Amino acid sequence: MIAKQLNMLIRFCCFLTLLGFNLEGYSQVFSEVESFVFSGMNANYGNAVADYDQDGDLDIFIVAYNSYDANDGTTISRLLENKRGFFEDVTDKVGLRKQHSINNSQDFKLGVSWGDYNNDGYPDLILAHQNGTQLFENQEGKRFRDVSSIANINPCTDNCINSGNMWWDYDKDGDLDLYLYYLDSPNRLLQNQGNSTFLEIENALNLNDSNRTWSCLPIDVNRDGWMDLYVVNDFGLSRFYLSIEGNSFEEATQEYNLINTGCGMGSTIGDYNNDGFFDIYVTNIAESKDNPLFMGTEEGPFINTTVEEGVANGHYGWGTRFLDVDNDGDQDLYVVNGDNDLHYNNVLFKNVREEGGNGFQDWSQLSSANGISNGMGAEVFDMDLDGDQDILVSNTNASPYLYKNNTASPNAWLQVNLEGTVSNRNAFGAVVIAYVQDRAIHRLVYGTSILSQSVKPVHLGLGKVQKVDSLIVQWPNSKNEVIKEIAVNQKIKLVEQQGMLEGEIFVAKEEEQETEIESTVEELPFDLRIYPNPFKDSVEFLFDEKITSGLLRMDIYSIIGVKVFQLEQEITPNLDWTLHWKGENSRGVKLTSGMYFYKIKIDNKKWSGSMLLR
Question: Alpha-carbon distance 580 to 297, whole Å?
Answer without folding.
Answer: 51
